[in-house]
Amino acid sequence: MSDLPLIQADRAVPSPAATATSTGGGRGRRLRLLSRTDRVVITLMVLVPLLLVVGLVWLPALATVALSGTSWDGIGPLSEIEWVGGRNYSDVVNIYPPFVPAIQNNLLWLAALFVVATPIGMFLAVLLDKEIRGSRFYQTALYLPVVLSLALIGFVWQLIYSRDQGLLNAVLGTQTDWYGDPDVNIWAVLFAAGWRHVGYIMLLYLAGLKGVDPSLREAASVDGASEASTFFRVVFPVMRPINIIVLVVTVIESLRAFDLVWVINKGRNGLELISALVTSNVVGEASRIGFGSALATIMLIISLVFITVYLAVVMREDRR
Amino acid sequence: MSRPRTEAEYLARLVPPSVAGIGRRRLLAGTAGAGALLGTGLLAGCGSDSESGSSDSKTVSLGSNQSDPTPKNVIAKIMDGFKSSSGIEAKINTVDHNTYQENINNYLQGKPDDVFMWFAGYRMRFFAAKGLAGDVSDVWGKLSGLSDAFKKASTGDDGKQYFVPSSYYPWAVFYRKSVWKQYGYEVPTTLDQFNALGAQMKKDGLSPIAFADKDGWPAMGTFDILNLRVNGYQFHVDLMAGKESWTSDKVKKVFDTWRGLLPLHQPDSLGRTWQEAAQSLQQKKSGMYLLGLFVAQQFSNDEQDDLDFFTFPEIDPSIGAKALDAPIDGYMMARKPKSEANAKKLLEFVGSKEAAEIGVKIDPATLVANSQADTSGYTALQKKAAELVGSATEIAQFLDRDTRPDFASTVIIPALQQFIKNPNDVDGLVNSIENQKKSIFTS
């Protein structure tokens, strides 16, 4: 059976009878039952992604950590890189004024998306799932911000928030400096970010809702459950995988929040975010690669905390 | 020039690097070995056709950051002129201005074009010192009509020339003649007169000084001119080179003077773009605006004659008011051009009066460097600007061209914005700048 065609690979799985008779030595036998093609395919399927992950994720990540201990400016051969130890980190914490606001803003971003935007997106998905009239239209309208290019989004909000010529001040008759006042601009941007996030979450959740078995709802209504308790006690628990995805997406979105603030003022003056600080130090003319890498490493560590929590939850799930 | 000159470029700038394709750089920049790989990336990728044709001795390639229609047209016409005078064809590789500037390090370390456009100033000398630019001293021997000031601005730390200037524009205080006539304002020549004028404008219901710093760089112009007036040119150079301390009383005096003027500035400047501030001048809501000559772009053609300017008034009589910011744009040669002879011929041509005259004809927003060029085509504003720069004793480039780019963009921009937000804590501010300066300049 060594040269079985790929398409028949299932046959390599032992028949129920075979498994039943060999409960003790089943493991070894099952391995032997894999055809050579199977083994080649499996090896490739493991190796190729592994190489990609190592080459495109882990090596750059480790290089970033290594570079964060240097003062490289991006010019000249690697041999000239000067090792400065932890100086970049102490500089980041002690003398770099935008760092603390950046951490605060990232956390604020996470909280705002998690507490406000995500629930609204889920709520809208539930509404749209009711097949109300024109639901296609609402769906498109709400999802549009996710599709629009960032350049356009930045420009749209510039037209709305501009102090002298913007729509918002013209309508409200105010003189609020939406983008320039550091106490106001983070909220203005969070609103714009939420505007996009709501559409994203809505679509994800709507897809999940469509997949819920209708008979569950029927059973609930036969039992006399109200609309709200049907959702919270039946639909919501059933949607657990989607809920986790939504949670992960929310965390990812708030950690990599970057584009809007970059479009607005390159993440300065009240809109500091770690990702924007990394970019302004590493990319562009500045080329403070060592210093920027230190910021990137800090960002990596923060991400690792969330990743670890997520993996722990998922793995515990699997073990059950 | 690093300023968006048109709406189109402004819009193009809104495209974040992640979208424009630089996002990958952040990932790759982490890989230690990626430096070489990157150089061949974004910029050089556009020049692939010039590489294939370069074995031919009748071509030379030019990396241009002049991506706006008018300057782009100037470059194209100059290269046409070069072809008809020398028979060598210049292949122009135009890259969006902002992208060009952000990628310059990788561009120069990869396979740059034979000749590339850049600015005079610290950054030019830095590339020269790092061996990323070719020595063009012998080209200077053949150039005529370029003043000693331009030669000085083109000279690297080793005394050789690495740069050929083509155009420049001054920073000054712009105003509308019709507004000033209506209220009977006079050009101030001292700080006291300037303050009195501002107070009068306030009474007349104008914002005295239009001001915008959302993008971070316009406030550098204000800092520069105050520093030049309070402490003089040499202190500006030394401060930018990291030799002078930011905690010194001289720097504090600059900020103190600025704080005195801040009430005259348009409020809420950190949310405003320079275009919006220029439009407030154009709409006669503001009395004056300290900016580069490019402010004229925000005025329609029939309003150009109404626009006038004066140089920032004297603050300290012993220092006077003769120094100013006038950034110079021009050309440099790659460290290893494919054909050095052709590259030098091109540099000689772009520095000549023929090339300058092409610029005069087409572009009203800049001044040409070559003094032998026929400048009868200048607008009244251009003529006056040329006179102003001609009478200047010292010409500074601009804060972000006169110092390290990492210092200018990651330290000075946030610091000046912090000052505008909270002008009262000058001590804390200059200490923070000095700490970061020490860390950056020693690395």
UniProtKB/TrEMBL annotation, chain A:
<dbReference type="InterPro" id="IPR051393">
    <property type="entry name" value="ABC_transporter_permease"/>
</dbReference>
<protein>
    <submittedName>
        <fullName>Carbohydrate ABC transporter membrane protein 1, CUT1 family</fullName>
    </submittedName>
</protein>
<feature type="domain" description="ABC transmembrane type-1">
    <location>
        <begin position="103"/>
        <end position="310"/>
    </location>
</feature>
<feature type="transmembrane region" description="Helical">
    <location>
        <begin position="186"/>
        <end position="207"/>
    </location>
</feature>
<dbReference type="InterPro" id="IPR035906">
    <property type="entry name" value="MetI-like_sf"/>
</dbReference>
<feature type="transmembrane region" description="Helical">
    <location>
        <begin position="140"/>
        <end position="160"/>
    </location>
</feature>
<keyword id="KW-1133">Transmembrane helix</keyword>
<dbReference type="GO" id="GO:0055085">
    <property type="term" value="P:transmembrane transport"/>
</dbReference>
<dbReference type="GO" id="GO:0005886">
    <property type="term" value="C:plasma membrane"/>
</dbReference>
<feature type="transmembrane region" description="Helical">
    <location>
        <begin position="289"/>
        <end position="313"/>
    </location>
</feature>
<keyword id="KW-0813">Transport</keyword>
<feature type="transmembrane region" description="Helical">
    <location>
        <begin position="107"/>
        <end position="128"/>
    </location>
</feature>
<keyword id="KW-1003">Cell membrane</keyword>
<feature type="transmembrane region" description="Helical">
    <location>
        <begin position="40"/>
        <end position="63"/>
    </location>
</feature>
<comment type="similarity">
    <text>Belongs to the binding-protein-dependent transport system permease family.</text>
</comment>
<dbReference type="Pfam" id="PF00528">
    <property type="entry name" value="BPD_transp_1"/>
</dbReference>
<keyword id="KW-0472">Membrane</keyword>
<keyword id="KW-0812">Transmembrane</keyword>
<dbReference type="InterPro" id="IPR000515">
    <property type="entry name" value="MetI-like"/>
</dbReference>
Automatic annotation (TrEMBL), chain B:
<dbReference type="Pfam" id="PF01547">
    <property type="entry name" value="SBP_bac_1"/>
</dbReference>
<feature type="region of interest" description="Disordered">
    <location>
        <begin position="49"/>
        <end position="72"/>
    </location>
</feature>
<dbReference type="InterPro" id="IPR006311">
    <property type="entry name" value="TAT_signal"/>
</dbReference>
<dbReference type="InterPro" id="IPR050490">
    <property type="entry name" value="Bact_solute-bd_prot1"/>
</dbReference>
<protein>
    <submittedName>
        <fullName>Carbohydrate ABC transporter substrate-binding protein, CUT1 family</fullName>
    </submittedName>
</protein>
<dbReference type="InterPro" id="IPR006059">
    <property type="entry name" value="SBP"/>
</dbReference>
<feature type="compositionally biased region" description="Polar residues">
    <location>
        <begin position="58"/>
        <end position="70"/>
    </location>
</feature>
